[in-house]
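Blinded run. Sample ID left blank on purpose so nobody reads anything into the name before looking at the predicted structure. Input follows.
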Amino acid sequence: MSAAVAWISIAPVKGLRIQSRDEVRLTEHGVPGDRAFFLVDDRGSMISATQLGPLMGVVPDHDDRAGTLALRFPDGREVAGPIELGEPEVVRFSFSGREVRALPVLGDYSAALSELCGTRLRLVVRPHDWPAVDRGPAGVATLLSVASLERLRVEAGVSEPVDGRRFRMTFGIDGLEPHEEDGWIDREVRVGDAVLRIAGHVGRCAATTRNADTGVVDFKTLHHLNAYRGLQDTTEPLAFGVYARVVRPGAVRVGEPVEPPSYG
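Blinded prediction complete.
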């Protein structure tokens, strides 16, 4: 079986519900609109669903061309409107510790998210010069094989498939061996019309223990990964999937071929 794109997903707002796509345009800065916004706390530090599970229950709808953003909450309430921005302020990315100047989003978005989570949050726009939020230019796209998900299911001893949305990856890849993607580090792979250079393994945090729709903790992801992958030689601990930079931009569609690196 040849390798192919099994799914594509993006997160218009980091930490909120991810969105499926049939087709995306992959640029050197990743998929346009992916992680376009993120949340910070009172100290200006980035916040994710690792700390606040209820965020996953919020469905975002961002139209970059129209300049609008809508957030649909679990109770059916919706906050929507044109995107209006405030004055730049310093915020800090929790993963890298890097500080940048970002623009806060005005309106009722922050208040509604704060009410949902019971703590003060502010919605900001990701700076254009820092793609992917966490890892920057080296990690604008992520990949995970479907076979790796199946291996995790077997190791966990559960009957239901493990929901790939837990891992919030850009691309799911069918037709590979379990964790075959681990061996792609520092090699190039073609995905659709784009070419990626795999830069490292994606280490996992407690966000993966949460249900992708509700944010409720319902799967011992880290426990199971540690049990069978804790001693693996990876660039980040408890790795599951890989991240990449874009070498050649291009369109990527579900079902299109993926050409793994040659080892000859």
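Unblinding after everyone has recorded impressions. The helical segments are 109-117, 146-156, 221-229.
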